[in-house]
Amino acid sequence: MLRIAGDPQRAADLLRYIAAELAHNTWSEMLLVDAVGVGDELSQLNPDRLRLHDSGDHAVTQFGRLLADRRAAATDGATDALRARVDDIEPDAWAPRVLLLGDDSAETLQLEDTLAGIGHRTGLALVMATNAGGPGLRATIDDAGVLAVPELGLEVVAHQMPIDEAAPLAQLLAHAAGLPDHAPSPGDAGSPVAAGHWGDGEPADETRGSRPQVVEGLVDSVLPLPDDAYLATAATTSPDVHVLAPATTPARREAAASGDPNLDRDLAHWNNPRSGRPKLTILGPVRVEAQGRLPERNPRRQFYTEVIAYLATRPDGATSEQYATALWPDEPDVIGKTKVRQSISVVRTWLGTDEDGDAFLPSGLTAAAGGRYRIKGALVDADLFRRLRARGLARGADGITDLHAALDLVRGRPFELPDMRVRGVGGYGWLLDDGNRMDLELAAVIVDVAHVVSTHHLGNGEPERAIAAAQVALRSGTYEDVPLLDLVAACDALGNSAEADAFVARILANHDAEVEEDLPPRTAEVLFRRSRR
User: Fold this and answer.
1) SS3 sequence, 218-232?
2) Which of 157, 174, 191 is the last residue before a domain boundary?
3) Which among 360, 206, 193, 208 is positioned nearest to 289, based on CA atoms?
4) Span 263-315, pLDDT tens digits
5) Does the residue 273 lie in any domain?
6) Which residue among 16, 132, 159, 411 is least enclosed by CB atoms within 10 Å?
7) In this structure, are 69 and 103 located in the same domain?
């Protein structure tokens, strides 16, 4: 337990740095960090590790439960974090957890006393910015950023992450995390989409940064023109072109066709209103279309829609315990209750059966048998988007039609919930608690695809079609500059300089910047190149 006293701004900058470091260090396994009241600017940073909270209620409660469990194990002499790891005794149960607090509160008093009194390794750490006294190691940081830890006899210059540097850094690292680092695996036509699965179908390492010319002046890529042709007309960069539209090969073309042979059939079912297969829309307002029985005015329809959204985005299904705790997070004793089984029964009826009479949500699953609830045969727009993107990139110049078809699936902001002003209030809390923020990941990949399509059309002298693609990206709710820059380039190509300048002004306002030099490097580079045309 560490208490950081002194200058509040410097303490916050240090906590922000700690959050970013923990989110990306390579030496810790299974680490999870909860930050409360600090670090909101880091929302794009590795969500597998870092979770941000406006309120400490949930984070402190979860931390307290872990603390109680580990204290009981240590008190009983069963084990502690060190022994569990050395002897490989349920090491995942002792995964490290760090709670960062922007300030102390009454909620943490019991945590502090308990953590200080255990006397065993727990794998838990509590770090808070506070000038109040209490147990734990105490450090003080002054307005010059010098950190003193009297108990250790240390006085050092503390690392800092100022608030105005945090968001650009998070955006950069989030982009770097999305770069391909493994070979593709063929898409499974029946598999549900899930966060973290967007890498499927990405190019292998040998294509990164390489666009070999296979025809005179052309590249076998979805962006086949030389880089200079796109840099002269589009709002892109060479790294964008290399990473987002890598060169393909005949083998990859063949793998795309043979690895997902049912893609066109599934897309036809999606576009056929008479198809009996259930359809889940999450690239926009969440919506379910199914042939089973559920009255349109059923007051619980929104909840049952959430159930389907949860199950359809679990690649390996969900146990009854996982399902119950995800859908009823505020009821710790909900497991095994009748309403859990009843909700599955209602959803099973709503989804209906396939042509063979088999339920799209199979029955006979019990926690005792280790069974899982898994929706089979349903169509999810995000899954179709992923598969179209993978095939489009693999097909080279012929793949632009697949990317267009992918953008046609986007209806708005991923997981848009028109009846809920705050996601997690009244439902979909699991979307935040999963640790991967699928909604943000989907928005980011929509921006990538839209940028490739816009770049393609600007390179071909088709600015109107570039505008249409960029508008799809904006519908995803993104805060990135990419689609706005695409619109600037398209308006310039149409001779609408006033409209282009309006989009530039919007970019400046988004960053609270007065001049283009104050913008993120990529944005400034694109706009600087524009000024020289």
Assistant:
1) EECCCCCCCHHHHHH
2) 174
3) 360
4) 999 999 999 999 999 999 999 999 999 987 776 667 788 899 999 999 999 88
5) no
6) 132
7) yes
